[in-house]
Amino acid sequence: MEEKTLLTELSFAIDTLKTLALVTLNVEESHPLALPEPPTPDKVATYERHMNAICEQVAPQLRPLPAASLRDYRAGFPDRAGSYLLELVNQLLREPEYAAAFSPAAQKRLQSCVMDLREL
Q1: Which residue of 8, 18, 56, 61 has the lowest C-beta tally within 10 Å?
Q2: What is the pTM of this model?
């Protein structure tokens, strides 16, 4: 596992989810019963690349979490997509094999990711 790659991909994914969340908020304010608009195919493809890169960095038992995040992102639900990434990051911080693999600086960045994902 390359911590730099994982942290970079998580950061990009979080920024993407925040952008989608802002768009969703604007739609919801204008019409309370409106369903979220799914992101455009190019944005889905970009998010999919981030999730695939994350999958390559984590153990097979954690790979369903980025896959579920991608599924909900495709549907236009940034909060649900973020909840799967939040679960992933929490597991990375909790499980001894991952906790020992991250430098102190990387652990701080993961904690920052947790805070950002909770805001979604």
Answers
A1: 61
A2: 0.86
